[in-house]
Amino acid sequence: YERVHGSVSRDLPTWVPVPQPAGQEFQDILYEKSATDGIAKITINRPERRNAFRPLTVSELRRAFDLARDDTQVGVIIFTGKGTEAFCSGGDQAVRGKHGYVGDDNIGRLNILDVQIQIRRLPKPVIAMVAGYAVGGGHVLHMVCDLTIAAENAVFGQTGPKVGSFDAGYGCSMMARLVGQKKAREMWFLARFYSAEEADKMGLVNKVVPLEKLEEETVVWSREILRNSPMAVRLCKSSLNAVEDGHAGLQEFAGNATLLFYNSEEGQEGKTAFLEGRPPDFSRFPRLP
Ligand code: S0N
């Protein structure tokens, strides 16, 4: 297998912070790239709050995911939380107001929903690297990632019904797809916590490793993806989304078809003919079976 496909290094990357414009430095997150691979790492950096997100955290996450999407050197994004106590403990309850989570502008928001969709539609794999708690809205975040690598100390669960909230979007529907209707109802109705081993058995995670091996394993998975065809991986993600996402999934998949078609001679002929002021000649393109 290795003779044909090669092997991947298990060396930990050197993470290089990506500088942000003056005055726009990230406060609640870290955005780094591997010095040697096409891996970006986005880290919620509020360990004193178990990496709970507030509106500022969420707007910074949105910016970082956009940067990773637009960076043609980046092929895989690792999403994680600072420290070993938590991946993310969900919305910051200290700033929860009457209409969502309140930031400096005093407006209540549920803008984490935008991040969920952003991860879902990002045309590159996003891997959740989970140590400690992934609970509440933090649990939904790991579920919307393409893959989850968990440390043995990881703890998973929804807390909403205990703290007077719920995520009836991806939080419920995606969970039912992952673990089935009965288990999803158990997780939401009882709001219990589950160990990494239990999560593994339920199909909530891809792999569980000792805490000290978490980053190494996640990087190996990232490198294995990176050596594969970016377009094939992109279309597989898009297809897996399309089958579940209705019009939005079709629109995403169709965007990929257009991207490929634009690059074809047939697609170029239409544009070239228009710019040259002549009728397009599509006669040389075969009507394939
Ligand atoms: C994570 C837990 C289990 C960790 O327990 P542990 O290790 O004993 O630590 P603590 O001492 O409890 O915590 C350390 C410090 O961190 C603070 N903290 C922890 N979590 C939060 C949080 N979510 N918000 C604010 N602060 C938090 C603690 O207060 C403590 O601070 P100090 O040291 O000052 O005392 C445990 O901490 C825990 O259970 N946390 C709460 C988990 C939770 O209920 N999260 C919120 C669930 N709801 C959401 O996430 C909302 C999601 C959402 O935005 C949404 C989006 C769309 C649609 C619907 C929703 C929706 O509302 O659900």
Automatic annotation (TrEMBL):
Per the record, the GO terms for biological process are: menaquinone biosynthetic process
List keywords of the entry alphabetically.
Lyase
Reactions that this protein is recorded to catalyse: 2-succinylbenzoyl-CoA + H(+) = 1,4-dihydroxy-2-naphthoyl-CoA + H2O
Give a GO cellular-component term: cytosol
Q: Which CDD domains match?
A: crotonase-like
Q: Name one GO molecular function term.
A: 1,4-dihydroxy-2-naphthoyl-CoA synthase activity
Q: Which Gene3D superfamilies match?
A: 2-enoyl-CoA Hydratase, Chain A, domain 1, Lyase 2-enoyl-coa Hydratase, Chain A, domain 2
Known Pfam families for this protein? ECH_1
Q: What class of enzyme is it?
A: lyase
Q: What is its EC number?
A: 4.1.3.36
* Family as reported in the entry's similarity comment: Belongs to the enoyl-CoA hydratase/isomerase family.
Write down what this protein is called.
Answer: 1,4-dihydroxy-2-naphthoyl-CoA synthase
The species this protein belongs to is Ceratodon purpureus
